[in-house]
Amino acid sequence: MPQNGPSDSEIFDRALRRKRRDRAARRYEGFVREHMLEGIHDRLIGVKRAFHDVLDLGSFGGGFDLPGTRITRIDAGAAFAAQAGGVQGDEDRHPFPEGSFDLVVSIGVLDQVNDVPGALALARRALRPDGLFLGAFLGAGTLATLRSVFLQAEGDRPVARFHPQIDVRAAGDLLSRAGFALPVADVEPLTVRYSSIFSLLTDLRGMAATNLLPGTPPLTRGVLGRAAQAFAERADPDGKTPERFEIIYLTGWAPDASQPKPAKRGSAVASLAAALKPKA
Fold first, then answer.
1. H or E element at residue 243
2. Residue among 184, 44, 22, 134 nearest 88 (CA)
3. What whole-number distance in Å separates Cα of residue 41 and Cα of residue 19?
4. Which helix (H) or strand (E) holds 87?
């Protein structure tokens, strides 16, 4: 069962996250996740095998579809879970038994999970041998403009309103630590242009992507006004300010004896020194 509030060791307030997701479900803004869904499907096109049992880990209201498969959906928010015909649960505490699925996808949530290594390890455990994990989430560098204008607006006493972000190298390391074979992490930027800071904040609320850090003081009108002015000052000549979303994609396989293995150290038939030697 979900637990209320954050523990001392957790970054995010779990109860607040569920509340924000339920609010977003009433007026969901899914354009960033739609972009992620396209990226996930592009990666699936290159996989020449059939899938039967799929786990959609952090489903929002649905959206991911793969014809001919059985899809189990789970979301931390009760409203999103109900919309998707799934179950409510946290990605780092889900109850699915070992070896239940041959494909696990997680699209747009891992940047808001308290225990990302634990979530990836559970996803790896839920996969059958040679099962595939595909993930996408917002990584380091996302909302750089918004971060900058709030730092400027709050002056000498900035408030922690943005949680730590995972970069692409750390994401690849997390896949390896979770026990995935053939891990790959890559990043694709998405730039969106906004007429005002308020349009951006509305989109973030609609994506359930606002601040989940426990104990953050509310914004004052003064801070918000100064941030809005700083955001407008960064606008292009047409009056719109660009903001970047850095989307990190993850690919990993549950280990299996049939998978290719890296060559053993010392097994090369030619030395690196010889390969680098200038030719006469």
1. strand 241-253
2. 22
3. 30
4. strand 87-88
What is the identity of the amino acid at 82? Answer: A
120 touches 180 (CB < 8 A): yes
Nearest-angstrom CA–CA distance, 105 and 85 = 16
Cβ count within 10 A of residue 138: 24
Cβ atoms of 61 and 25 within 8 Å: the answer is yes
Going by C-alpha positions, the residue among 109, 100, 99, 86 that lies closest to residue 37 is 109
- Strand locations in 139-180, DSSP E? none
Is the CB of residue 185 less than 8 Å from the CB of residue 175? yes
Whether residue 161 contacts residue 216, with contact meaning beta carbons closer than 8 Å, is answered with yes
Please measure the distance between the N-terminal and C-terminal CA atoms of the chain and give it in whole angstroms.
71
b/e map 9-47, b = 16+ CB within 10 Å: eeebbbebbbebbbbbbeebbbebbebbbebbeebeeee
**Backbone torsion region of residue 60, taken as left when φ is above 0, otherwise alpha when ψ lies between -120 and 50, otherwise beta:** left
Residues in Cβ contact with 74 at an 8 Å cutoff, skipping those fewer than 6 apart: 55, 56, 57, 58, 59, 81, 86, 87, 88, 89, 91, 94
Beta carbons within 10 angstroms of residue 126's beta carbon: 23
3-state secondary structure of 183: strand
Helix count (H) and strand count (E) of the chain?
9, 7
Amino acid 264: pLDDT? 59
φ and ψ of 201, to 5 deg: -65, -35
What does the alpha-carbon distance between residue 260 and residue 210 come to, in Å, rounded to a whole number?
42
Tell me the per-residue pLDDT of 78-132, one tens digit each, with 9 for 90 and over: 999 999 999 999 999 988 999 999 999 999 999 999 999 999 999 999 999 999 9
